[in-house]
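Something for you to look into today, if you have time. Could you write out one complete protein record for me, on any chain you like? Leave the record below and I will have a look.
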Amino acid sequence: MKNISKYKVDIWIVFCIIVFAIISIITIGSAEKLLVDTNSLALKQGLWYLVGFLLIYFIMILGNKFIFKNAWILYIIGILSLILVLFFGASINEAKCWFKIPGIGNIQPSEFMKIILIIVLGRMINDFKEKYPQQTLKQEFIFLIKVCIVVGIPSILTFLEPDTGVVLIYLLITFVMLLISGIRYRWFIIVLGIFGISIGFILITYFYNNDLFIKIFGSSFFLRIDRLLDWSSGSGYQLENGLTAIGSGGIIGYGLNNTPIYFPEPQTDFIFAVFSNNFGFIGSIILISLLTFFDLRLIKLAIESPSNINKYVISGIIGMLIYQQLQNIGMTIGIMPITGITLPFISYGGSSLLSYMIMAGIIFNVSNENIRYRN
């Protein structure tokens, strides 16, 4: 445990999160105008942010050493929650991804599993590097098998919900953290080769033999692939209206609470379209610049950290955030498949926001360690 009063953190990271909170709440408030049943989403997001800042405080009191030490306990809790949600979760849009808690809302375990996976992989990589400073091919191979098992279990459970978008995030986190760890590049070439062949087989079967595809992979997976590929034609009610909203915003936008065209999920998946419509091209550039600045501060934080495990964990957080930023904005403007991935710190959602605030607490702990190390 640590004395919170002794903490000094990167003020620019704090500034970014506060601005994100303001942007999120006002944009969700604007998005509510497009919804029939709003349930005071902006107010709820504000409350989630307050809970999130308290969570940051709690994480800073615990300290990263305590969190990393108990990584496997967190992993077991995360896996159990993913199993339980398959049996007792609320079914929303034909997916069982949430626990419905009266008076609180929907809690999505896979959102917390992302940060748990980052913590566990950071611990695994650090322990491996300390145990084997000069790794042999055999030692690396055994280690990678262990990583595949650790990542594979939550990936399978999350895929069954189904939530393919989060599974992709699990895999990306793993890829980035292993890349930063210094594992031999030949493993990445092998994995990318296998992945490419697998994707090729899936797509060839999908395009040329639908019956065989459904027989092998099932109709549910067929529909998910079908949805992923819809973006390539630029068609679809949500995408077309989202693009119209962004384009019609012009240079300065329609102004807050003025979104004249409807599109589904404006408060979550397509929050960027609402913001762009309200604040135009200039507002969009400011938001993207703020996201980029935030990412660069995290990269600087990782580079300056004297602790290897901190570097691994921050790299996983950075990889996840950048991917989600690119994917969310990209799918909104029609250059990426629509996967239902939200914009970190901006989109509505209690589970996702709290998971980001947990990450922020870990980031602040690293920032404090860096400042104390320099001094």
User: Anything to note?
Assistant: The chain has 14 helices and three strands.
